[in-house]
């Protein structure tokens, strides 16, 4: 009935262009907008087919006026959110109707105001007198005070002091409160307002709710007749459809035969371990010694690299804070030793390595297992040579065929039907004999060793060709960097192994000194009186106070060789990062074609990576990651990946990748207790073991869980101090676990933790 009205759909973009957004530019009260015809034509040219005015292009071009009326239609009376008025007459009628409505509303408002102005006249009943009586009238003249001051005192400094008012009664007047009967007026009348409200009552209503029931409806399918089926099957439409889709259907059927689309790859990662719950540690053997391990904690445990069944451990005291500060107050009740045991003779010590001080850490040489290097609590670095006792260690066997009678000295046949490693009858006689005592063949001199305990020892890979080229054997051995030690004094020392002649001279001098002093068997050693000549070749020391903390060295990769310098250069200047020093300017050496990257874990829960031992002056080639909340006690490279490292400290552990500078690739959340030790598995890349302060061993299997340990088992009642794995054979693997009570537990690892899945 309105041919001049055309429904129009305006999108949000068009509403923003022409300022006609609902509830902002146009509302239900002010629901129209006049848009210039030129702007609409320009929009048609600019936006072309995307313009909302395109369907009414002809109507807009034929419109005689300059502005078109666009009306907001919130109720969709004409089918869209807007409509346009395409004639001048309809536009004027619409605007006049709006003006008439506004005039009517104004007239109604004026009438309401007139009715409000007609009020009842006010008649005074005497209340103005009460108002005058209640009002405050000042009758007395005000008292004026004038306070003056001498001009020279203006701007003078003012000093305030605290003073007890009770000491000076003249400086203040106390006005205590008291009741005055003169002003006690009895109230005879009070104005009180009372308002009555309906009484409230809480009530509840329980409605009955019917129990829901399942309902179903039976229907009959609509079936075609035989004639209709024949017509449909012979139609051209069906033939075209089958011709168009039969290739796609054939491909889909082939894909379903080739692969299972519903196969869950994530669950299949650990399919080899599904259904296996036999994850446990079996107690295989335990070692302890009343003489050397009573009231002491085991600090380090190492398996012999080549001889099966030989394990070594070192013990130290549990010093108080005062004893840690002053090492001279060390108790002399125990001897500082490294003990070597055999799995086949748990009741008898195989070797006892004597040390000048308690050992914090030690390590077998990978190239020559007869050399053992250790770090002491006073910072000394000690070396042992057990080559003379190698045959004794290799002669240990699990079964004994003969037992020697001490009375007659002749062997007698002994039949051992069942051997238990805990109680081996064949070794009872032998256990009574004292084990061989091995003295250290080299020890660092006090001025050139660490100022604090040596916390880690690492052997560097040596070159076999160096032993066959030029010079005497003594010079060759001394010029090879084979040993690295670190300490909380923020220094890293590189050592060369003394030659055989030097080691023999050291031993002979030590024996002569002991004979000369005629020491009783129970008195302590006095190694500081000897002339110890073993000195480090290189000393790396950080001059930055942030790094002066405990350094737990993990990895130093030196694939090349160390050669003497052809020409001497000026010494390297000090920088804020690393300070280099050598024992003698005549023995300066140059590291060629080698990698000098290393990782350091410190006492302030930070992991420091250094990219170069010889950084250019003014440059800083290290990165520091503060992740752990306590001292880092373990920093170990994965046996399967050369660039993957595990760090453990406090209540967290983290896995790092060399070259990734934005942090660890995996870190744990804070645990309830503290992590005290940890080691990678030697047979499974995704498994590692962590010792806790409550005596538990957590087994982390990254294929099963990454947010919590897959299994845990209690081993001891005290703190776990060290963990060391060993692969005896393809079917037998051990885990050595030491605790704070001086007991070494040998655990047999179950087959589930030994054999990795095919895709691990």
Features:
5-stranded antiparallel sheet; Methylamine Dehydrogenase, Chain H; 5-stranded mixed sheet; alpha+beta; 13 helices; 38 strands; 760 residues
Level-1 CATH class name of the domain at 286-319 and 333-392 and 435-463 and 480-500 and 528-541: Mainly Beta
Radius of gyration: 48 Å
Oligomerization: single chain
Instruction: Find the CATH topology of the domain at 286-319 and 333-392 and 435-463 and 480-500 and 528-541.
Output: Methylamine Dehydrogenase, Chain H
Structural class of the secondary elements?
alpha+beta
Number of helices: 13
Largest sheet: 5 strands, mixed
Unreliable spans: 327-332, 399-432, 463-479, 524-531, 546-552, 554-586, 612-619
CATH superfamily of the domain at 286-319 and 333-392 and 435-463 and 480-500 and 528-541: YVTN repeat-like/Quinoprotein amine dehydrogenase
Helix content: 10-25%
- The overall strand count is 38
Strand content: 15-25%
Coiled coil: 84-118
Organism: Nesospiza acunhae
InterPro entries: Dynein_IC, WD40/YVTN_repeat-like_dom_sf, WD40_repeat_dom_sf, WD40_rpt
GO molecular function: dynein heavy chain binding; dynein light chain binding
């Amino acid at each position: 009935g309105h041919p001049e009205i055309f429904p129009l759909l305006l999108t949000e973009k068009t509403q923003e262009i022409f300022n006609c957004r609902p509830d902002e530019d146009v509302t239900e009260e002010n629901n129209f907008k006049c848009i210039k015809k030129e702007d609409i034509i320009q929009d048609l040219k600019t936006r072309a087919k995307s313009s909302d005015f395109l369907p009414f292009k002809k109507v807009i071009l034929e419109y005689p006026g300059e502005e078109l009326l666009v009306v907001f239609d919130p109720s969709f009376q004409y089918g869209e959110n807007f409509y346009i008025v395409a004639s001048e007459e309809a536009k004027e009628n619409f605007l006049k109707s709006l003006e008439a409505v506004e005039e009517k509303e104004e007239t109604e408002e004026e009438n309401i105001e007139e009715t409000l102005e007609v009020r009842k006249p006010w008649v005074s009943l005497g209340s103005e007198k009460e108002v005058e009586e209640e009002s405050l009238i000042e009758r007395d003249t005000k008292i004026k005070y004038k306070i003056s001051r001498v001009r020279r005192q203006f701007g003078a400094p003012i000093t305030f002091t605290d003073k007890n008012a009770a000491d000076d009664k003249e400086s203040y007047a106390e006005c205590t409160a008291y009741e005055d009967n003169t002003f006690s007026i009895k109230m005879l009348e009070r104005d009180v307002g009372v308002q009555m409200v309906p009484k409230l009552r809480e009530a509840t209503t329980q409605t009955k709710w019917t129990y829901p029931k399942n309902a179903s409806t039976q229907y009959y399918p609509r079936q075609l007749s035989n004639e209709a089926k024949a017509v449909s099957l012979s139609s051209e439409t069906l033939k075209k459809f089958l011709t168009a889709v039969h290739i796609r259907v054939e491909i889909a059927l082939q894909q379903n035969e080739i692969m299972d689309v519903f196969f869950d790859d994530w669950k299949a990662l650990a399919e080899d371990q599904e259904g296996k719950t036999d994850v446990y540690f079996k107690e295989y053997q335990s070692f302890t010694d009343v003489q050397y391990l009573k009231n002491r904690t085991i600090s380090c445990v190492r398996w012999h690299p080549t001889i099966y069944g030989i394990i070594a451990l070192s013990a130290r005291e549990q010093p108080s804070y005062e004893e840690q500060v002053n090492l001279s107050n060390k108790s002399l009740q125990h001897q500082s030793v490294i003990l070597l045991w055999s799995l086949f003779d748990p009741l008898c010590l195989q070797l006892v390595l004597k040390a000048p001080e308690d050992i914090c850490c030690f390590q077998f040489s990978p190239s020559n297992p007869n050399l053992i290097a250790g770090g002491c609590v006073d910072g000394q670095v000690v070396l042992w040579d057990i080559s003379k006792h190698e045959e004794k260690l290799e002669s240990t066997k699990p079964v004994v065929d003969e037992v020697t009678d001490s009375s007659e000295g002749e062997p007698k046949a002994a039949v051992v039907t069942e051997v238990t490693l805990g109680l081996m009858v064949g070794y009872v006689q032998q256990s009574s004999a004292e084990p061989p005592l091995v003295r250290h063949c080299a020890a660092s001199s006090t001025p050139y060793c660490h100022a604090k305990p040596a916390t880690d020892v690492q052997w560097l890979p040596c070159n076999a060709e160096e032993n066959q080229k030029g010079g005497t054997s003594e010079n060759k051995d001394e010029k090879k960097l084979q040993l690295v030690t670190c300490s909380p004094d923020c220094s890293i020392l590189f050592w060369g192994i003394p030659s055989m002649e030097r080691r023999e001279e050291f031993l002979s001098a030590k024996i002569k000194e002991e004979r000369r002093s005629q020491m009783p068997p129970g008195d302590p050693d006095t190694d500081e009186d000897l002339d110890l000549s073993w000195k480090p070749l290189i000393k790396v020391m950080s001059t930055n106070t942030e790094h002066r903390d405990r350094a737990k060295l993990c990895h130093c990769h030196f694939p090349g060789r160390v050669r003497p310098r052809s020409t001497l250069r000026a010494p390297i200047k000090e920088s804020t990062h690393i300070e280099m020093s050598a024992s003698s300017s005549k023995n300066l050496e140059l590291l060629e074609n080698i990698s000098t990257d290393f990782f350091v874990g410190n006492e302030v829960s930070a992991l420091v990576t250094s990219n170069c031992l010889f950084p250019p002056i003014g440059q800083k080639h290290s990165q520091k990651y503060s992740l752990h909340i306590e001292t880092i006690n373990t920093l170990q490279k994965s046996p399967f990946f050369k660039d993957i490292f595990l760090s453990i400290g406090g209540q967290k552990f983290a896995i790092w990748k060399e070259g990734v500078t934005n942090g660890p690739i995996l870190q744990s959340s804070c645990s309830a207790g503290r992590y005290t030790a940890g080691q990678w598995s030697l047979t499974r890349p995704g498994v590692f073991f962590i010792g806790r302060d409550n005596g538990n061993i957590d087994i982390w299997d990254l294929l099963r869980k990454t947010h919590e340990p897959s299994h845990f088992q209690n081993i001891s009642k005290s703190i776990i101090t060290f963990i060391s794995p060993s692969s005896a054979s393809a079917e037998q693997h051990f885990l050595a676990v030491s605790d704070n009570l001086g007991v070494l537990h040998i655990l047999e690892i179950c087959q589930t933790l030994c054999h990795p899945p095919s895709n691990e």
